[in-house]
Amino acid sequence: MQLNTKTGLVADIKYHSSPNTDERPDIDDISGIVIHNISLPPGEFGGGWINDLFLNQLDPTAHPYFEAIATLKVSAHMLIRRDGELIQYVPFHQRAWHAGVSSWEGRTGCNDFTIGIELEGCDDQEFEAVQYQQLTQLIKSLCDAYPRLTIDKVKGHQEIAPGRKTDPGPYFSWQQLNTLLQA
Q1: Phi-psi region of 118 (alpha: psi -120 to 50; beta: other; left: phi over 0)
Q2: Which of 59, 149, 158, 164 is most deeply buried (CB count within 10 A of its CB)?
Q3: Taking a C-beta distance cutoff of 8 angstroms, is the pair 110, 160 a contact?
Q4: Are β-strands 114-120 and 32-38 bridged in parallel, bridged antiparallel, or unpaired?
C-alpha cells in the first residue's frame, strides 16, 4: 500500500473528498488510530449510503433511519468495505470528524491527533478476513509514514467515547488484528 505523505492519500484507491474536514492543530501530532464500524441502514451492507453520509448527500427520505442522521456532518479518513475495497474521504494530514466527544489517555478532542478508519460492519456480526488484512496493511503503512504512530496506538471508538459509542463492537477481533500486525 503506497501512501503519499504530501497529499495524505493512498495511491490507486477511490478518493471521495468529504467536505467534513479541516486543518489539524498540529500536523506533526498524528499519534493514534481509531477503529469504527458503520452500516447504512444499520445491519445492511453495500450500496452508496455511507458515501452519501460522508459527502453530505444522504437523502433523509430514502430510509426511515436516515431522517435522524442526514444532517450530521461526519467523516472518516478511510472506509474498508466488506469485500476489502478501500475508499478514502479525508487526507490523513487533515482532521476528519469521526470521534466526536472523546478522550484518549487524558487528551480530549481525539479528532485533532487521530486517524479514523471505518469498517463496513456492525456491532452484532463478524467482520470479513479481507477487512482485517486491509486494515493491517493500512495501519502498517500509516505507522511507516507518521513517526508518532505505532501499532500499539490503535483503539476502538468505544474506548475513547465509553458509554456513548460501542463500535467496533464485540465481534471485532482485536486478537486477530494484533496477530496480523505482529506478523
Answers
A1: beta
A2: 149
A3: yes
A4: parallel
CATH class of residue range 3-182: alpha beta
Distance of alpha carbon 127 from alpha carbon 120, whole angstroms = 8
Straight-line distance from the first to the last Cα atom of the chain, in angstroms, rounded to the nearest whole number: 16
Active site residue 23: no
Which residues have CB under 8 Å from 179's CB, separation 6+?
Answer: none
| Single pTM value for the model | 0.97
Instruction: State the residue for C-alpha cell 479541516.
Output: 22
Return the closest-CA partner of residue 89 out of 120, 47, 128, 53: 53
Are 23 and 91 within 8 A, CB to CB? no
Residue with cell 490503535: 154
The one-digit pLDDT tens for each residue of the chain (183 residues) are 999 999 999 999 999 999 999 999 999 999 999 999 999 999 999 999 999 999 999 999 999 999 999 999 999 999 999 999 999 999 999 999 999 999 999 999 999 999 999 999 999 999 999 999 999 999 999 999 999 999 999 999 999 999 999 999 999 999 999 999 999
29 and 111 Cβ atoms separated by less than 8 Å: no
Residue ranges per structural domain of the chain: 3-182
Set 44, 105, 118, 126: catalytic member: 118
Contact 172, 35 (CB under 8 A): yes
